[in-house]
Amino acid sequence: MCTSTVEPSVRGVPLSVSGDEAVADLLGVLSYGALVAFDNLGADARLAPDLRRRAALSEMAAAELVHYRRLADRLAELGVDAVDAMEPFVPSLDAYHTSTRPRDWLEGLVKAHVGDGIADDFYREVAAHLAEPDRSLVLEVLHDDRHASFAVAEVRAAVEADPVLADRLGLWARRLVAEAITQAQLVVAARPRLVELVEPSGLAGLAALIDRLTTGHAARLSALGLRS
Amino acid sequence: MCTSTVEPSVRGVPLSVSGDEAVADLLGVLSYGALVAFDNLGADARLAPDLRRRAALSEMAAAELVHYRRLADRLAELGVDAVDAMEPFVPSLDAYHTSTRPRDWLEGLVKAHVGDGIADDFYREVAAHLAEPDRSLVLEVLHDDRHASFAVAEVRAAVEADPVLADRLGLWARRLVAEAITQAQLVVAARPRLVELVEPSGLAGLAALIDRLTTGHAARLSALGLRS
């Protein structure tokens, strides 16, 4: 499917794109996402309450760069420059991160866990529609389980000790999701051919997809000890 | 030599330490150095004038974390916790970096190149006195040549276009070296047994070592297009 030429129509605008271009878009947004995740986890590491936690988060940040390198190498194989592939997604991803800058260590962990969780669930669904080797690549550059366990343990312990904190972090998680949805819409508006990869079965499929993402999100909040 | 028990006397204070402890100190300071280099290169990447340079510097930052991991694994083999091994060196390395925070992209590159260059020359000399596997490990975690070529090309081009900049960056490099020497003295004061690794032949050897480091530093400045 992803190498055939299709002519999707999004919001009434006819597009003539090949699936290869949509795959390059997907790898481009993933590449920039990895670069930004590296940057954010690195900044979060500086908020760590001690050297042990700082080192642990720094290692997770560095893992994002390994993902970036793999995606950039695959783009090069496809004859696409990684920087060119990333550029269209810089404004919307930067806007999301600028509007959701964590004020402390726990907000950083909630943001990484909640944001990465939704993104991973989403890309896992997209991967199902891809041909190899891109399917495996996308699955392999999803976020590290280590980070999820680390974030859950840290946030849960803090929230159990302080119910007021649970309310504050719960609100924070809701704001993150709202901002992420806004920016995801801008990504799709900038690159409508991505929709073709996301849900080839059309809008009905999209609604079901959003339902699955919402369920996963609620489960993650509950694991953190937060209400959805 | 590094596994025998020696009783060095530094500044007249008799010490009873094993060479293994000095090796753990060395790996500790290298580990924290790698963690801080990761952090600084990551922050420098944010100053990059474009996405291509930002991605390049981010990759070099991530390479530091790979070094950190190798050093931490070796410390674990020696039965030493990496965080414990790093702690003594946090104040002096942090003081160096706090007092030399680059104000722009080029200052960041000069700092990384000049500072890493001296540190690498120094650790290369230390490695010659170590037994395996630590000798190879220390040599392998020296900074990436990619970073040196990248920094030289960027700074040289900027300096050739603007001689005033050459003066400013030359002054900056002198300040970096002065701060580095101050902090290196504090490191040795905090961990005098490190001297045993650095120059087993005593103070005469130390003077020759400082001479060699100075020569290397002057060569690097000249490659950057700066006067020493």
Automatic annotation (TrEMBL), chains A, B:
Tell me which InterPro entries the record gives: Ferritin-like, Ferritin-like_SF, Ferritin_actino
A Pfam family matched by this chain, by name? Answer: MiaE_2
The source's domain of life comes to Bacteria
Ferritin-like domain residues are 20-198
Give the protein name, as stated in the record: Ferritin-like domain-containing protein
Q: What is the lineage of its organism?
A: Bacteria, Bacillati, Actinomycetota, Actinomycetes, Cryptosporangiales
